[in-house]
Design a protein that fits this description.
heterodimer; A: Globin-like; Transcription Regulator spoIIAA; 2 domains; 65% helix; B: 149 residues; alpha/beta; 5 helices; globular
């Protein structure tokens, strides 16, 4: 432990002396991963954040206890990598590049220190171990940033899907169709039902055809929501016709022990539309020439 | 959406019924209007107190009996939320009306009210529902609902 501390102090001392030399070398991995093929950054930017990285690592090594991963200096270093990976990901870079960059940075740093100090760090397990621990932690920060980014993207997509997955269309005067796609959960049913009921009031819709062809999974909770939706439509004074019921959905619906006698179902969308027409007194016939 | 007099007159002529609109005696919190030979329109006003439903129902049924009505339209356009208390009142009125062979049809139920109602009812209500009066009348002409409720 004391030996490691001594080494760190030594390293810090060396660092502050030969900042110019090392920073030039630290820029190289950044150039390699972010400038060449991917063109994510320009040279100045790489030089800037390499210098920032060096200041941060010098600050860490100069801190009271460089091995303490809870120190503000270490936290600053983690934040630096979080910010860096966010920047790269936003610009369309891969997380792999950032990880490889971090590994390369570790090797470059050790090699540079070795060269400048004349001490064979590669022989010293404690120093190597120390740097490995530090950089592992930094790679973790990179991955956390990556996961956060992915989660945000997923959440945004989910939101978008929610909004676009319930297109209510008027296919005939007073006839609405509602294709239900994906999974119906409580919060989504509320949204769909609210939109549908408001639409019925606004368009004065006499019939609503609910198409379940796109419903993936159905359980008793979902069936319950569906029945509620049908009942609400009926209460508004409109007709609800369900279509696109697959065998497993039929099974789930009857398992609820709900009286289905007043719920109209049809095999296909066209049959449902015909039923809506029949109830509205509309006759569609081929034009006789 | 209350029927405009012109529209109602037109419809009354079309179906051969005489249009009449007479209010005999006021029931507190309610407007009960005859809108055709057999049809009555019930419009609740802001001051309606449904906790006193027995007396209200009696007054309404008396009027319906006196005019030999066969249909009662209940206008729900001002009712944003239907809670269990209000639902019980509607159901009781509908069942009493059934007892004297009057069909009750709730019209203009608001989306918010329908939304609230399905959260707690488990049975099929005693009243029928329709978007509005003309919608219900035309659907009756096409195919009398096969005792849907």
């Amino acid at each position: 432990m004391t030996q490691k501390k001594d080494l760190s102090e030594k390293v810090a001392a060396l660092f502050s002396l030969k900042v110019g030399n090392i920073s030039a070398e630290l820029v190289e991995p950044g150039r390699k991963y972010f400038c060449q093929d991917s063109r994510l950054m320009d040279d100045d930017e790489v030089a800037d954040f390499s210098a920032e990285f060096m200041n941060l690592i010098v600050a860490l090594l100069a801190s009271k206890d460089p091995t303490n991963q809870g120190s503000p200096q270490f936290h600053a270093l983690q934040m630096f990598f979080t910010g860096l990976s966010q920047k790269v990901l936003v610009r369309g870079g891969h997380v792999e590049d950032v990880v490889r960059y971090t590994q390369q940075l570790q090797q470059t740093l050790i090699a540079a220190l070795e060269k400048d100090s004349g001490i064979a760090f590669t022989q010293s397990r404690s120093v190597l171990l120390y740097f490995t621990t530090v950089f592992n932690e930094l790679i973790m920060a990179v991955f956390r940033a990556y996961l956060e980014e992915k989660e945000q993207a997923l959440f945004a997509q989910e939101q978008e899907l929610r909004e676009t997955a319930t297109p209510i269309t008027e296919i005939w005067d007073g006839v609405l169709t509602l294709p239900i796609i994906g999974t119906l959960d409580s919060s989504r049913t509320m949204l769909v039902m609210e939109a549908l009921l408001n639409r019925i009031a606004k368009d004065h819709a006499k019939a609503v055809v609910m198409d379940l062809t796109g419903v993936k999974n159905i359980d008793s909770q979902v069936s319950h929501h569906l029945i509620q939706m049908v009942r609400a439509v009926q209460l508004m004074g409109s007709e609800a016709i369900i279509t696109g019921i697959r065998p497993e959905i039929a099974r789930a619906l009857i398992s609820l022990n709900i009286n289905m006698s007043d719920i109209t179902t049809r095999a296909s969308l066209s049959d449902a539309l015909k039923e809506a027409f029949r109830r509205m007194g509309i006759h569609v016939s081929q034009k006789a020439d | 959406m209350p029927l405009s007099p012109a529209l109602s007159r037109k419809r009354a002529r079309g179906t051969g019924t005489r249009y009449a609109s007479i209010t005999i005696m006021p029931i507190p919190g309610l407007h009960l209007t005859q809108i055709g030979r057999d049809d009555f329109l019930l419009e609740p006003s802001r001051g309606l107190d449904v906790s006193d439903h027995d007396r209200l129902i009696e007054s309404i049924i008396e009027r319906l009996l006196g005019a030999r009505a066969s249909r009662l339209y209940y206008d729900l356009s001002t009712q944003a939320i239907i809670d269990p208390v209000y639902y019980n009142w509607l159901n009781k009125l509908a069942r009493t009306a059934q007892a004297i062979n009057v069909k009750m049809v709730c019209v203009h139920m608001q989306p918010t009210a329908a939304f609230a109602l399905v959260q707690f009812i488990h049975e099929i209500p005693a009243f029928e529902t329709a978007l509005d009066i003309s919608d219900w009348q035309s659907s009756q002409m096409i195919a009398p609902r096969q005792a849907k409720r």
